[in-house]
């Protein structure tokens, strides 16, 4: 006797129809509009001229774009190099249980609740030599600190501001990964007499690989799209020292009202982020697979 197959109800697909509609209006249609602008010279709302890939070629030759891309790459790599180990160290130092753990989690997460424009304003005041705590302290130590006039000081201030604002996110993710490790691993390490460094290297870091991958991707994408904080703090200056890709795009689209080049660059910007995230993801996947391989005698 042949087995009876239960009919499949396809009506459940209608439940996700609102999601597709929202995505179409919030992502697909704006993307199509940007693609349309990128191949046209918009002279006026009524007059447009098709130019093909001319804007893409013009944007790629722009020296200001090259400088902004270099600033962006340096900044994003510095963010990962500082925030990842600092976040792991902070997570390791946080208490695991009790009311101290709850209180620490709340305190650590406070900076994440502050809006981006407020963060820029806080550090704008914090770095001033006349009324700012950090600026005045550095001046008393004999350091001629001036984030508005010195390019290096401005770049380091933006980096320090981002570290202060977003390291707690890495710490919270790492803390969640640490709390998910079974106690049996730690018991086996104590029996073997493993040091804290060995426990970190062979137990904690491998078990946190998943959450650390999420932390790296989130922090890279967010740092690569940073705009509000450096705009409020330095305005992209002095010169172009803290002008990142998002500010370059804003200058093109809003400041100069070059919608064609701005649309072309926004697509290039989008592809750059996708490319780097793809490379980072595959690199971390390879590291994870290599760490899971067990050598045979």
From TrEMBL:
<feature type="transmembrane region" description="Helical">
    <location>
        <begin position="12"/>
        <end position="32"/>
    </location>
</feature>
<feature type="transmembrane region" description="Helical">
    <location>
        <begin position="75"/>
        <end position="93"/>
    </location>
</feature>
<dbReference type="InterPro" id="IPR052730">
    <property type="entry name" value="Sugar_ABC_transporter"/>
</dbReference>
<keyword id="KW-0813">Transport</keyword>
<feature type="domain" description="ABC transmembrane type-1">
    <location>
        <begin position="69"/>
        <end position="280"/>
    </location>
</feature>
<feature type="transmembrane region" description="Helical">
    <location>
        <begin position="154"/>
        <end position="178"/>
    </location>
</feature>
<keyword id="KW-0812">Transmembrane</keyword>
<dbReference type="Pfam" id="PF00528">
    <property type="entry name" value="BPD_transp_1"/>
</dbReference>
<keyword id="KW-0472">Membrane</keyword>
<dbReference type="InterPro" id="IPR035906">
    <property type="entry name" value="MetI-like_sf"/>
</dbReference>
<feature type="transmembrane region" description="Helical">
    <location>
        <begin position="210"/>
        <end position="228"/>
    </location>
</feature>
<keyword id="KW-1133">Transmembrane helix</keyword>
<comment type="similarity">
    <text>Belongs to the binding-protein-dependent transport system permease family.</text>
</comment>
<dbReference type="InterPro" id="IPR000515">
    <property type="entry name" value="MetI-like"/>
</dbReference>
<feature type="transmembrane region" description="Helical">
    <location>
        <begin position="262"/>
        <end position="283"/>
    </location>
</feature>
<feature type="transmembrane region" description="Helical">
    <location>
        <begin position="105"/>
        <end position="126"/>
    </location>
</feature>
<protein>
    <submittedName>
        <fullName>Sugar ABC transporter permease</fullName>
    </submittedName>
</protein>
């Amino acid at each position: 006797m042949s087995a009876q197959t239960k009919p499949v109800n396809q009506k459940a697909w209608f439940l996700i129809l609102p999601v597709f509609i929202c995505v179409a209006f919030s992502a697909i249609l704006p993307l199509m509009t940007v693609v349309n602008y990128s191949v046209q010279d918009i002279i006026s709302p009524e007059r447009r001229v098709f130019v093909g890939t001319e804007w893409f070629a013009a944007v790629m030759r722009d020296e200001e774009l090259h400088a902004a891309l270099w600033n962006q790459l340096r900044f994003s790599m510095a963010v990962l190099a500082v925030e990842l180990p600092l976040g792991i160290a902070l997570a390791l130092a946080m208490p695991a249980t009790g009311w101290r753990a709850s209180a620490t989690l709340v305190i650590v997460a406070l900076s994440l609740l502050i809006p981006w424009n407020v963060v820029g304003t806080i550090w704008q005041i914090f770095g001033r030599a006349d009324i700012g705590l950090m600026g005045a302290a550095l001046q008393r130590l004999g350091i001629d600190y001036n984030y508005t006039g010195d390019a290096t000081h401005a770049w380091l201030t933006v980096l320090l501001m981002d570290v202060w604002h977003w390291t707690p996110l890495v710490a919270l993710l790492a803390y969640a990964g640490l709390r998910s490790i079974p106690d049996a691993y730690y018991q086996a390490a104590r029996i073997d007499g493993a040091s804290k460094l060995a426990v970190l290297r062979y137990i904690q870091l491998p078990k946190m690989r998943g959450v650390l991958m999420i932390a790296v991707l989130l922090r890279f994408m967010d740092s690569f799209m940073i705009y509000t904080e450096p705009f409020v703090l330095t305005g992209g200056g002095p010169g172009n020292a803290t002008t990142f890709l998002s500010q370059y795009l804003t200058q093109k689209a809003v400041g100069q009202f070059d919608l064609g080049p701005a649309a072309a660059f926004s697509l290039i910007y989008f592809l750059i982020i996708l490319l780097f995230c793809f490379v980072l993801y595959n690199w971390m996947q390879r590291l994870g697979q290599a760490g899971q391989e067990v050598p045979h005698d």
